[in-house]
Design goal:
The protein has one domain: Aldolase class I (TIM Barrel, Alpha-Beta Barrel), CATH 3.20.20.70. 47% of the residues lie in helices and 14% in strands. The longest helix is centred in the last third of the chain and has 18 residues. It has an 8-stranded parallel barrel with strand order 1-2-3-4-5-6-7-8, surrounded by 5 helices. It is globular and about 50 Å long. The protein is an alpha/beta fold. Helix 3 packs parallel to helix 4 and helix 10 runs antiparallel to helix 12.
């Protein structure tokens, strides 16, 4: 059977003044634990990782493992502008019991392929008996992992897969073509679970599924059935919820608020949904919760 993992990209909860809401984050983790998804992607883009300090990183990872370990896989994002910072976070994660990590490429300053390779080589060594995913998001970082570079990175010990955000389906297929057998390719495009799978992806890392997982689980079931009508109907539902909520953290938090999970806020400079958007968010929440 084709692999169709859904890793839920989990939002972090903050108070209105920007302070970390650890209990609110625990409530989100418990919500995610009931999703039926295969894993949680903690402190990635959806988790606002650039705004998290090292002490908060420790607190959030510890809470995630306490709430989710034994229920689903927990992939801890450790990426940073420097290998020095990212390695420190791998070590903290390992100390707490994490064994699956992802790291976005170095960002802000330009980085050559050799510099990117050295960054992941350091993380690979730090991962020890753990597993490491390359996280490529060139539209945010300005650094792109080409298929040729990915093939080199895949030879490093512990590098087991890649998360590709805002890459085309053709680029997903190029990754699959150069990846060794068993190497995992995830798309970061919520709605492309089936389409990317047809091009060689093993699943999706989805922020929207952290708040409204049911349409995504229904799409997996439909795809496994092979029933074209079921697939089309399930895909339509996913398209609907993604169009409304999208990769927008304040909108995800609006869903969580509507569900009574937590009244959380963003720390980063993000626009809150307007009244029209809130009406649509309420509609999809009622339809798909």
């Amino acid at each position: 059977m084709t692999r169709r993992d859904i890793l839920t990209a989990v939002p972090t909860a903050f108070q209105e003044d920007g302070t970390l809401d650890l209990e609110g984050s625990r409530a989100i983790f418990r919500h995610v634990a009931a999703s039926g998804n295969e894993g949680a992607f903690v402190l990635g883009t959806t988790g606002e990782f650039p705004a998290i300090d090292e002490a908060e990183f420790r607190e959030i990872v510890e809470a995630a493992l306490a709430e989710l370990a034994g229920v689903m896989r927990v992939v801890v994002h450790v990426g940073a502008p420097s290998a020095y910072e990212a390695v420190r976070r791998v070590r903290i994660g390992r100390e707490l019991g994490a064994r699956e990590f992802a790291a976005i490429t170095p960002y802000y300053l330009p980085a050559s392929d050799e510099a990117v390779y050295a960054y992941y080589a350091a993380l690979s060594e730090a991962a020890g008996d753990g597993e490491l995913y390359v996280y490529n998001f060139p539209n945010r970082t300005g650094v792109h992992v080409s298929p040729q570079l990915l093939a080199r990175l895949a030879e490093l010990p512990n590098v087991v897969g890649v998360k590709a955000s805002e890459l085309t389906l053709d680029q997903i297929a190029e990754y699959r073509a150069v990846a060794p057998e068993g190497f995992i390719v995830y798309t970061g495009a919520d709605r492309d679970l089936v389409a990317a799978g047809e091009r060689g992806a093993d699943g999706v890392v989805s922020g929207v599924s952290s708040v409204l997982p049911k349409p995504f689980r229904a799409l997996v079931d439909a795809a496994d059935s092979g029933d074209a009508e079921r697939i089309a109907a399930a895909q339509s539902a996913v398209d609907d919820v993604v169009a409304v909520v999208g990769g927008d953290m304040p909108r995800m938090r609006a869903v969580l608020r509507g569900l009574g999970v937590v009244d959380a806020h963003s720390r980063m400079a993000l626009d809150e949904p307007d009244e029209q958007a809130l009406v649509e968010i309420a509609r999809v929440t009622e339809a798909y919760a």
